[in-house]
Amino acid sequence: MPPRTITISDLGLRISAVLPRMCLSGPTETPLIFKASFVGILRVVIEERALFTHKQITPQSFGVQGYEYKYSNCTGRRKALLIGINYIGTKAQLKGCINDVNNVKQFLVQHGYAEGDIVVLTDDQTQMVKVPMRANIIKAIGWLVNGAQPNDSLFFHYSGHGSQVPDQDGDEEDGIDETIVPLDYETSGQIIDDELHARLVQPLPAGVRLTALFDSCHSGSVLDLPYTYSTKGVLKEPNLAKEVGEGLLQAAKSYIINDQTNMLKGLKALGEMVMKGGPNEDAYEKTKRTKTAPADVVMFSGSKDDQTSADANEGGVPTGAMSFAFIKVMNKAPQQTYLSLLQNMREIMVDKYTQKPQFSASHPIDVNLQFIF
């Protein structure tokens, strides 16, 4: 099978931001093409070639045939669960997660959420019931979804560590489940994406909005939502050649900003995927079949499944890069579509961080609709 050529414009990435020192003629006149071929090991040839401008791609979506779902108008009750874990005093300590929760809470109150309808779990609290232990997180999720009615609006925010474990039920394209990491994970275990989906998504009836914001590593599919959209508004599907191209760009950017650890991690993950033969399309179809849901669930996550998320510093204050970008975009221009919000968050983060925010949904969605919450 001849190698497939992948253009940067196909990947929806900006050359000037990703490879600034390799751009010889500006960001659009002379894009680069990656050629990837597999002969025992991965060989990559980078060559310069002029390309024609691509036509505008209209948003597309498709779902499980005959499956009914309903948008929420978000005029009902509003509830929010915000979880921030700094892992204080541990080897895995972070700095910005509690700040993220405080900032998101302030943002939600400014947009009509009542403080009495917001539950906060952070590891700096004195009441044990408010500390983000696994059992407390599960109980709080139950509170969030319990009694939800059409047009209610629920908001879930998690800022903390994310991880990965081997997939057990065959619904992961890469064979790996994504997780969030409670404070007591060493004794009580992590919470995998299948359980998060079962507890956060499945109980909700049609017409209930759940907006989920994950600022954690490996969070691209942490809710197991089947429909992930690109910054062009196009539904993503398993594609080995495209994944290889994006992985190479990611490694190149990590090299440029001297992030050797993430560069090596990215190349290792890329090699493992190639050896497996690429993304598992059967798993993708299973996810669509079993995880499409009638509720109106949307998720913005801080990174792809194979990426880490930055514990950043903005204006001298520790913060998560994703949480910071979300609030900054919404405060600057509240009238965002789902697509423009994703694009604008990417724009804020692209020059400073290697991670790429992701947008996914429980059902096919018109990404040009206004984002409401």
Automatic annotation (TrEMBL):
This protein's record includes keyword Nuclease: no
Source organism superkingdom: Eukaryota
Record protein name field: Metacaspase-1
GO BP terms: apoptotic process; proteolysis
Lineage: Eukaryota, Fungi, Dikarya, Ascomycota, Saccharomycotina
Domain Peptidase C14 caspase: 77-364
One of the record's GO cellular component terms: cytoplasm
Pfam families linked to this entry: Peptidase_C14
Keywords: Apoptosis, Hydrolase, Protease, Thiol protease, Zymogen
Family to which this protein belongs: Belongs to the peptidase C14B family.
Signal peptide (from-to): none
GO molecular function, one term: cysteine-type endopeptidase activity
Organism of provenance: Cyberlindnera fabianii (Yeast)
